Amino acid sequence: MLMYLNGQIIREEEAVISPFDHGFMYGLGLFETFRTYNGHPFLLDDHFDRLHRGLDQMRIENARYDRQETARIIASLLDANNMDDAYFRWNVSAGNAPVGLRTSPYKNPNTMVFVKGLPENGVREKKLHVLKQKRNTPEGPERLKSHHYLNSILGKYEMSPDQKGEGLFLTGRGHVAEGVVSNVFWRKGMNVYTPDPDCGILNGVTRQFVIRLARSKGFKVHEGHYMLNALLEADEAVITNSIQEIVAVSSVGEQMFPGVRGELYEALTSLYGRATREERLWSGKEWEER
């Protein structure tokens, strides 16, 4: 597979960065994962708005988003890999600096764009398994999509290799947080509930778009702090991320749910499918304005 590194498209095995990159030494790096539909990078502006907020917090400069240039790189990678659509990971790390923590800005970051093929048949249903490992609190004002991934990895380790589904984090206070790689929603009647970002979750781009979709279908969306029983007593549940899109929950532990037969799942997937097939959206706000 071919990838992008600091202005060049190269083979993955040729990619090299210095061990003095503070993204490697201290975790000072961020990434966004997104996919294309008919060659269009869906909600790209929203992904890069979040990336830039994080870069500002980490004092990483000179990695600003230009839609035209970014879209050109994505199109070049699709062409170079002979792919119509793909999974992309756009990664920015702080760049090289001497050993030791610093407060001055990083002015020469490394930008890497990884490409993967998309699964032929997407996952429609998953089981959720409540993890013993708690979701940690963010290191700053909000959870960033950063190189600090140990908490998620520990949650992943808790799942046995033959255990299908996804782990579900609770907070240290017992509130529902998020999946290892997803945000979670559940429905009770016409009310839809999802953990508030101040629970320490990643405020996912797809999460934000799904909130818009749910409200457009007449559901009342609530963001808050909810104990596990609130989820277990729901009529249905779904999880979301930018690659798997919207996935129905078939069970949480021993509690069964309707999965793909759920009213919320059917409404959301219909709208999401239309948005990705028929619209070339750069942001969720564009969808609302149309």
TrEMBL record:
<dbReference type="InterPro" id="IPR050571">
    <property type="entry name" value="Class-IV_PLP-Dep_Aminotrnsfr"/>
</dbReference>
<comment type="similarity">
    <text>Belongs to the class-IV pyridoxal-phosphate-dependent aminotransferase family.</text>
</comment>
<dbReference type="InterPro" id="IPR043132">
    <property type="entry name" value="BCAT-like_C"/>
</dbReference>
<dbReference type="GO" id="GO:0046394">
    <property type="term" value="P:carboxylic acid biosynthetic process"/>
</dbReference>
<dbReference type="GO" id="GO:0008652">
    <property type="term" value="P:amino acid biosynthetic process"/>
</dbReference>
<dbReference type="Pfam" id="PF01063">
    <property type="entry name" value="Aminotran_4"/>
</dbReference>
<keyword id="KW-0663">Pyridoxal phosphate</keyword>
<dbReference type="InterPro" id="IPR043131">
    <property type="entry name" value="BCAT-like_N"/>
</dbReference>
<protein>
    <submittedName>
        <fullName>4-amino-4-deoxychorismate lyase</fullName>
        <ecNumber>4.1.3.38</ecNumber>
    </submittedName>
</protein>
<dbReference type="GO" id="GO:0008696">
    <property type="term" value="F:4-amino-4-deoxychorismate lyase activity"/>
</dbReference>
<keyword id="KW-0456">Lyase</keyword>
<comment type="subunit">
    <text>Homodimer.</text>
</comment>
<dbReference type="InterPro" id="IPR036038">
    <property type="entry name" value="Aminotransferase-like"/>
</dbReference>
<dbReference type="GO" id="GO:0005829">
    <property type="term" value="C:cytosol"/>
</dbReference>
<dbReference type="InterPro" id="IPR001544">
    <property type="entry name" value="Aminotrans_IV"/>
</dbReference>
